[in-house]
Write a structure and sequence with these properties.
Elements lengths: L1 H9 L5 H8 L5 H11 L1 H10 L1 E2 L2 E2 L10 E3 L13 E6 L4 E8 L11 H5 L13 E3 L4 E2 L7 H8 L12 H36 L9 H4 L14 H34 L2 E2 L9 E2 L2 H4 L17
Helix pairs in contact: 1-4, 3-4, 3-6, 7-9
């Protein structure tokens, strides 16, 4: 599979590489890529590398892609945007969706996310150590932020860890971090509130003011915290219900995903190939897989 990807990369732009780009526009292309990541991670990384290209510039004379940008200590900036244009590809003039660097020349307006992704340095910042030469690329695989992709990457064996040096894989990981960061911060906030609540409960005995243990005098007798304190018990119950709801919804989604992949064990129209690809994604979503940590081992296999 890796040799197949390498051969396509060396072919002329108007041949098989165009077929891979066209096939990446299919409805089930993400499922195909997830299956390939599971079965042949290095070949999948090579395929994703073939799908890296430059975006179409709507108005290069007014708003072109800068070759220098401020990165603020980061080596990679990523974003997930819907801006695209239908264009023709190859001698057969196949229609493909191609990401576009939009600019309204009439209004002199560019999308707000442009300045966040590509912060062009001002004249006085030209010699700053935070300014680097950059290249802006797009990944020609729509809907890449799919949970099957991340499940396949998370299950990659240690002998295949070199795929994470691929620029395309780094970009997918970068997008996942940006997507999950708000959720992680919210979860951290809830956990912090739970911790503060338990601390306040432990510092507040029955029939005493809030945080009494911190404000009491040495003459006041010590008292234990009440096991039945409505103000704190409500917080505990709310946290318990939140966790039970999250666990129940997660288990339901896990089983539904497993049954869906088990029912559809083959995928038609694979990337760059003309026959069915047998999917093994159902094995990644098996409910008992949550007890298997062997795929995260650092020992070679």
């Amino acid at each position: 599979a890796q040799d197949f990807a390498d051969r396509i990369a060396t072919l002329p732009a108007a041949s098989a590489k165009h077929k891979v780009i066209k096939d990446a526009q299919n409805e089930n292309a993400v499922d195909c890529m997830a299956s390939l990541l599971q079965m042949a991670p290095e070949a999948a990384a090579g395929m994703l590398g073939l799908l890296l290209a430059k975006p179409i510039q709507e108005s290069p004379g007014h708003h072109s892609l800068s070759s220098r940008a401020i990165l603020w200590g980061r080596t990679l900036q990523c974003t997930y945007q819907p801006d695209q244009r239908i264009t023709r590809l190859g001698p057969r003039q196949d229609k493909v969706r191609w990401p576009e660097w939009k600019y309204d020349a009439t209004l002199g307006h560019a999308p707000a996310w442009h300045s966040k992704l590509l912060k062009v340095p001002q004249e006085h910042q030209a010699r700053s150590s935070k300014v680097f030469d950059v290249e802006t690329l797009v990944l020609l695989l729509p809907n890449i932020l799919d949970i099957d992709i991340f499940m396949a990457l998370a299950s990659a064996r240690s002998v295949h860890r070199q795929i994470f040096n691929s620029l395309a894989i780094k970009a997918v990981h970068c997008l996942w971090i940006e997507l999950i960061s708000p959720v992680f911060c919210l979860t951290l906030l809830f956990n912090l509130l739970d911790l503060l609540m338990f601390a306040a409960w432990g510092l507040t005995p029955a029939h005493r003011p809030l945080l009494w243990r911190l404000t009491r005098t040495s003459k006041e007798a010590e008292a234990n915290s009440s096991m039945q304190f409505p103000r704190f018990a409500n917080f505990v119950l709310a946290g318990l219900l939140r966790d039970l709801t999250n666990i129940g919804w997660w288990l339901f989604s896990l089983c539904r995903k497993w049954l869906s992949h088990k029912k559809n064990s083959t995928i038609n129209g694979t990337l760059g190939r003309g026959h069915e690809l047998r999917s093994g994604l159902h094995s990644l979503w098996h409910p008992t897989k949550i007890f298997d940590i062997s795929h995260n081992t650092n020992m070679p296999e």
